[in-house]
Amino acid sequence: MMPALTLTRRAAMLGAVASLGGCSAISSLNTAATPLDTYDLTPPQGSASRGGSGRTLLVPLPNAPAAIATDRIMVKPDPVAITYLPEARWADTLPAVMQSLLVRSIAGTGRMGYVGPSEGGPVPDLALLTRIDDFQVEILGEAVMADVDISLTLLRDRDQRVIKTRDFKNRIAAASDEPADIVAAFQSILDTLLPAMAAWAAS
Length: 203
Description:
CATH topology: Rossmann fold
Structural class: alpha/beta
Number of helices: 4
CATH superfamily: ABC-type transport auxiliary lipoprotein component
Number of strands: 8
Radius of gyration: 18 Å
């Protein structure tokens, strides 16, 4: 594995560390004309079960801090610093990527009559609110860690009553500080978390 300091030095080349409030806009300006490798994340293969409820579930766009709600892959070289992986970006903003992953994962269970985003669609029985608290690379000594922490809340739409809430989180080491290995670490986390999220939401 390449030393973690390599990632920190490359991140510093972006123009050092941005603060939480304005880092997303600054990053977008700095990289608007720079072609970056684009990475996507995929849902688990559907394993539809019998006995679907026929209920409708809408999945609004997840909430996330400004530093995460971007198409850049966030890096925290230390607890108070924020920057972005200089050579890569997500295929869409992270909230949009996660919304699509959740919709496809829950629909793949076969236990709901309809699952879709909140833009359009039938009158829902349920709504799934998502909060992305962590979705970043963290540098811990010489380890390059992918860290994910997502909170889900299931609401009954007609009276906005909270039915249940649960946090889903995991952290694993990437094989190196190369973008492909970092994205693979995030995918490995989601390969575990997304089936658990889908089963929880559709139960």
